[in-house]
Amino acid sequence: MKVFQIKEQFYLDEKPFKILSGAIHYFRVHPDDWYHSLYNLKALGFNTVETYVPWNLHEPQKGQFNFEGILDLGAFLDLAHSLGLYAIVRPSPYICAEWEWGGLPAWLMKENLRVRSSDQVYLKHLDDYYAFLLPKLVKRQLSHGGNILMFQVENEYGSYGEEKAYLRAVTALMKKHGLTAPFFTSDGPWRATLRAGSLIEDDILVTGNFGSKANENFAQMQDFFDEYGKKWPLMCMEFWDGWFNRWGEEVIRRDADELAQAVMEALELGSINLYMFHGGTNFGFMNGCSARGQKDLPQVTSYDYDAILDEAGNPSKKFYALQALMKERYPELDYKDPLVKEASAPLAVELTDKVGLFSVVDLFSHRIDAFYPQNMEELNQSTGYILYQTRIEKDKLEAERLRIIDARDRIQVYVDGNLIATQYQEEIGEDISLEMPQSPVKLQILVENMGRVNYGHKLTAPTQSKGLGRGAMADLHYIGNWEMFPLPLEDVSSLDFNREWQEGQPAFYRYQFELGTPTDTYVDMTGFGKGVVFVNNVNIGRFWEKGPICSLYVPKGYLKKGVNTITVFETEGKYRERLVFSQKHVYKDL
């Protein structure tokens, strides 16, 4: 059995070992493509794969666990092992990762607890989750004949808190459920975050996260080690080779040659984990959100990250630039040519059917009645949309003053089916002029959760509770008698396209087409407004005309030979009679 040790260097079977790792998140890559990505990591000359583990996908509702399909962590690790790759696993509870609420499950908000703390209720839920998760990792440790070298305790905790009792509680739970491989923490490389987020006093390895200036950043870490008398190897656990993107902002790019040089600088001093090696996709509603002042900035569906592999898993310029320098400096490593997948663009597809949301909402949602509206978490929903509706009476001749209170994150307000206002978080609560030609009128509010904050001080803010909060006010009083329709949009197969469609309303659009041999492709959403796309009933993510990316990547694994169905849920009343495909992403000039 192989032995991995942390001394003044990393050792594998008593020989010095430099960790050359790349991040691939199994939950962001279709399982059919895992081999492609892992093979390319090995082909680069690297020896280890690193992955986070998202609690909110594995336990989407309390006590309901899922480790199948794209969530089969064990299968992913076994495949890596078969290719000769070691693994580093970061098993929650919080992962950041530009992921919806940093991987924390939304149902925790109902539990009267404080996340990321030694709160006993929170730790009990973590204990229950670990009871399902960690046995899958125990048997894949190096000491059990598997390939896992190390496990992370929490994640960048020094950028959030400094409660060492909490970090020790997480460590104790990991040990309780059988993890024996070395533990580590990772934080920013400066003293404040290292001091707050590490367990250096407990002899748990400290690693740093940065994307440049390795000499300077490793020097700060070495000073911290020296302060505590630790003789440890230096490792950058997240060497940021690119960056994520937000709606309405320019795509962030990094020069390939500059990145390759920066990586080599880091390797001269220590070990490295490239974040990301393959970024992949925020399928469904799993994109995270940045917090900036009073405004939250949701991130796009693509998690391309301008990484070593592109969103589809093919080598970027960075792959070749880095491999060339690696071959010069480390000629003894095993290098190979990378695998490259082809993408195709099927012919444009004619619109088959369309139907309005308001006419079919009763088919795939269950109506809940209450005098006061309930938010998303109270309705046992984590992501997606909620439609709230009620009736209000006309009390005066002039326009009524309407205000929507505490809604998150985006609302569209309709009166008798007509859109009268669209508001975002920073506008919600402002006056809406409500003309009422008749009385009563039907008031409908479509609320969208655009992604919970994944990092920083707003992680536990009230704004991370989604849906309609205290409600809506007409004149000076709260409106009552609400009908609520949760719309997690997990399954759209029951839609009845024989029902009514009205111009300017949220609607579903269905396109059907035949394929021979499926290949990767990209759906060009130019001409649509905002919404999500389903490929054969799988939610592949959000689109928004705001850009910068106006297309969605579709892995071939979500397509099939024969008839395929693409269903678009669009909220702005904008659609196309013909759906267009592309062989690459379509970008918008900003």
Automatic annotation (TrEMBL):
PANTHER family: BETA-GALACTOSIDASE RELATED
Domain annotation Beta-galactosidase galactose-binding: ranges: 506-564
Family per record: Belongs to the glycosyl hydrolase 35 family.
One Pfam family it belongs to: BetaGal_gal-bd
Residues in Beta-galactosidase 1-like first all-beta domain copies: 373-488
Name of this chain's protein: Beta-galactosidase
Superkingdom, natural source: Bacteria
SUPFAM superfamilies in the record: (Trans)glycosidases, Galactose-binding domain-like
Keyword check for Hydrolase: yes
The entry's keywords: Glycosidase, Hydrolase
Species name: Streptococcus oriscaviae
Gene3D superfamilies assigned: Galactose-binding domain-like, Glycosidases
Domain Glycoside hydrolase 35 catalytic: 9-327
InterPro entries: B-gal_1-like (IPR026283), BetaGal1-like_ABD1 (IPR048912), BetaGal_gal-bd (IPR048913), Galactose-bd-like_sf (IPR008979), GH (IPR017853), Gly_Hdrlase_35_cat (IPR031330), Glycoside_Hdrlase_35 (IPR001944)
